[in-house]
Amino acid sequence: LKIAAVIPAAGVGSRMQLSYPKQYLKIAEKTVLQHTQEKLSQLNYLSHLAIAVSADDPYFATLNLQDERIVKVIGGETRADSVLNALRALQADAPDWVLVHDAARPLVTVADIDNLVQSCLAADEGGILAAKVKDTIKRGTSHIETTVPRDTLWQALTPQFFRFNELLQALTDAKQAGSEITDEASAMERLGYPVRLVAGRSDNIKITSPEDYELACFLLTKTGK
Ligand code: CTP
Ligand code: MG
Question: Domains along the chain?
Answer without folding.
Answer: 3-222 (3.90.550.10)
